[in-house]
Every structure is written in C-alpha cells, then in structure tokens.
Amino acid sequence: MIDKAITHITEIAQIPSFSSYEERLHPYIRSLFDNIPSAKEIRVPGNNLIYQIGSDPKLPMIALTAHLDKINHYGTDYPDPLPVDIVDDQVEGAMDDSAGLGIVVTMAEIAEKREWPNLLFFFSEMEEKKGLKEHPELLKNKGKGYSNGMGAKRIAQRCIEEQLVPDQVITLDTTPLFKGDNGIALYANHWELNNIDPTEELILKTEKAVNRFLAIDSDIKVDNNTNDYLHYGEVFNENGSNMVSIALEPSIYPYHQIGERVFIDDLQRSLTILESFLSDSIS
C-alpha cells in the first residue's frame, strides 16, 4: 500500500495545480476513480470534486478529504513538471497537499476490497490562503472572487443539498508541528477556531473519535491548527448535524516553501491508522 501511495504522491506533486488552477489535477484524479467500478461522481461547483463509494443505508458514511491546490512558490516562470524526489527516507517536493491527496486516493483504490463504511471523497479548491495574501497576481483574476476555504464550503453545501451529510469527515493534510522531526498530528476541536458553538453531543462524539485514533496509535499528537477541517466542521454543523470533523496530518518540513519533505514512515503510519479506523467503524 505504501508503494502505491508514494507513486500517487510523486505523480500529483509534479502537477502545477496552484491555487485557482486546481483543474490541472482533475484528469489524474478522474482517471483513478474511472477505474473503480462502484465510484460515483457528484457534481459540485468550482474546481472541486466529490466521489462516493458505497450506499448501504445500514452502514455509516465517512468522508476522506484533501485539498487540490498548491502554493505557487515559483512565480510565472514555474517548472512543469514540478520537481519531486525521494531523498533518504523522505519524499521531497510540493508535499502540501500532495501527501494528503496520495493517501486519500490510495484508500479509494482499495476500498472495494475492504469491509468499510460508505465513503465520500472530497477534493477541494482554495484551501491555501498564502497566495491570496502574498501574491494574488499569480491567481486567476488576480485573486478576485476567491477566498480561503471556499472549496470545502462548496463541497459541504453540495452534500447538504444532496442529503449526503457524512457521519464524520477526516481531512488529510500536512502539519508543521514537529519542526523537522517525524510524527503525526490529529486536529480535532474545530470549534476553537471557527464560528461554531459546539453542542455537548458534538464534543462527546469528537472525543470518542479522538480516543479511537489514540487506541490505534497512542503516539499521535492531539493538537489544533487551521485548514479545511475547520470549514467542513463549520458548514456541516450549521444545520445541527453534530458531525465530527477532524484532521490527520503527517509531519512536513520545511513548510510553505520549495523543497517540502514528508517522512515515508509517517505516510505508512497514516495509511495504517486510517485502514484500522475504517475497519473498526463497522464493528
């Protein structure tokens, strides 16, 4: 499974799917889901993609998510393909969020051979805000009409319209928390950083999910930070669904610059944790 994930990560990292140009990744993502017989695409506005695998009403629904956009660190004269390499025990390149995307599509490819919950797969535009703040001239329309998190919000709203609100959203991104060391972080209390006033039920359900992850891997570091998991938590819970939103994130270093690296061991741990969590979700 790790070899498959590394292949996807290195392929995805080469594609210059910078913020507002996420459609450059769509052919690669679509080609993978076209080879999954039970996968169904759900149309959503903008440069976002939603896929569904499984629709058994007796099973829970879990969404796995990652953002499509990369930060353009190169300007208008960017290399195409973008550079990527295996350096010692790490993958080097545009790992934010090629690492998360590679993990998510790997889980999609093996889903039909597993006894797992119904699954949704969310691929979002405009998670990054660095480009909007520092070089909007590199975005389409010079960044006008774009906002941080707009993709996750569009995806969540579309799922609400389709009555496909998952029981839980797990966002796969990368964390700077470990500052060059390896590790995996779990971000959980989204209401500390978004506009949600959590119910007691949401707090308890989130604590239960966190404890399930820690039972699988006690070395996960529970922390908090900003990314799309906040937006999923906000929009899905505006209608009182008490839907759990968390983020599982392998270490990245350096962060938000050329030459980002992720540890292969952390990628393997993330895959193992997710596989166990999904398997346990129907027991």
Overview of this protein structure:
By secondary structure, the chain is an alpha/beta fold. It has a single domain, classed as Zn peptidases (Aminopeptidase). Helices cover 35% and strands 18% of the residues. An 8-stranded mixed sheet has the order 1-2-6-3-7-10-8-9, sandwiched between helices. A 3-stranded antiparallel sheet has the order 4-5-11. The protein is globular, with a radius of gyration of 17 Å.
Quickly describe the structure.
This protein is α/β, with parallel strands linked by helices and 283 residues long.
Fold topology:
Elements: H1 2-13, H2 26-34, E1 40-42, E2 49-53, E3 61-67, E4 85-87, E5 90-93, H3 95-110, E6 118-124, H4 130-134, H5 150-161, E7 168-172, E8 184-187, H6 200-216, E9 221-223, H7 228-237, E10 244-250, E11 260-263, H8 264-280
Parallel strand pairs: 3-6, 3-7, 7-10, 8-9
Antiparallel strand pairs: 1-2, 2-6, 4-5, 5-11, 8-10
Helix pairs in contact: 1-3, 5-7
